[in-house]
Amino acid sequence: MNAPAAGSRHVVLVGMMGVGKSTVGRALARAMDRPFRDSDDEIVARTGRSVAEIFAADGEPAFRAVETDVMADLLDRDEPSVIAAAGGAVLAEATRQRLRRAGTVVWLSAPVQTLVDRTASGAHRPALADDPAGTLTRLSAERDALYAEVADLRIDATDSVDVVVDAVLAALVEGADR
Ligand code: S3P
Q1: Given ligand 1 and candidates 121, 124, 142, 147, which is best to mutate, with the most ligand atoms within 8 Å of its CB?
Q2: Which CATH number is 10-173 given?
Q3: Can you tell me which atom of ligand 1 is nearest the CA of 22?
Q4: Is the CB of 87 inside a 6 Å radius of any atom of ligand 1?
Q5: What DSSP designation does 2 have?
Q6: Which residues, in sequence order, are CB contacts of 65 under 8 Å at separation 6+?
Q7: Taking burial as the number of CB atoms within 10 A of a residue's CB, which of 74, 102, 106, 177 is the most buried?
Q8: C-alpha closest to that of 33 among 9, 5, 1, 7
Q9: Ordered per-residue pLDDT tens for the chain, 178 residues
Q10: How far is the CA of 87 from the centre of ligand 1 (A)?
Q11: In 86-151, at which residue ranges do the beta strands (DSSP E only) sit?
């Protein structure tokens, strides 16, 4: 299909851990014929260490500093891409400001129980080592206002990847028509 809307801007997916940003982002990038970038993957490529290693050895503030640099780098690139921004990327004010300028920001959201189910596997989320349900509930409550602040679109991501990708594409086209 023709790449809808977004034009020369990035499409950036934000939202909680486990909502499906990377899976949806990869499929969306294919549908839009654009490169896909994932902030966690870029951090691993840049540092040569896993997200869990950075959290454990250097602490969360150090991880956030690298994440802010990586987001700046991804958003500043000229080639329009689809970017999956890790759940905590919006915590940095500098990233929130950049997001407003650099692209169409899509907030993928889902009920906490869906996030709990989807994060049951995967080692790059040290914050969920203990009490994932409680942590996801607390972090959602803390971050929803930040996702809302940066988002141009909010898409329910409870359904299958194909349904969510179609919903994002339709919303992008609608946004372009307005
Ligand atoms: C985090 C989300 C994770 C990863 C790290 C911290 C967060 O990425 O960056 O575990 O604080 O929300 P995903 O959103 O891709 O799971």
Answers
A1: 124
A2: 3.40.50.300
A3: 15
A4: yes
A5: P
A6: none
A7: 106
A8: 1
A9: 333 456 779 999 999 999 999 999 999 999 999 999 999 999 999 999 999 999 999 999 999 999 999 999 999 999 999 999 999 999 999 999 999 998 899 999 999 999 999 998 777 898 898 899 999 999 999 999 999 999 999 999 999 999 999 999 999 988 766 5
A10: 5
A11: 103-109
CA distances from 49 to 40, 117, 158 (A): 11, 26, 31
Rounded CA separation 98/149 (Å):
12
Hey, which residues does 83 pair with through a beta bridge? 12, 37
What is the C-alpha to C-alpha distance for residues 28 and 53, in angstroms, rounded to an integer? 29
> Would you list the domain boundaries of the chain?
10-173
Structure tokens at 158: 């409870």
* CA gap 39, 31 in Å, rounded: 20
66 within ligand 1 shell (Cβ under 6 A):
no
Is the CB of residue 125 below 6 angstroms from any atom belonging to ligand 1? yes
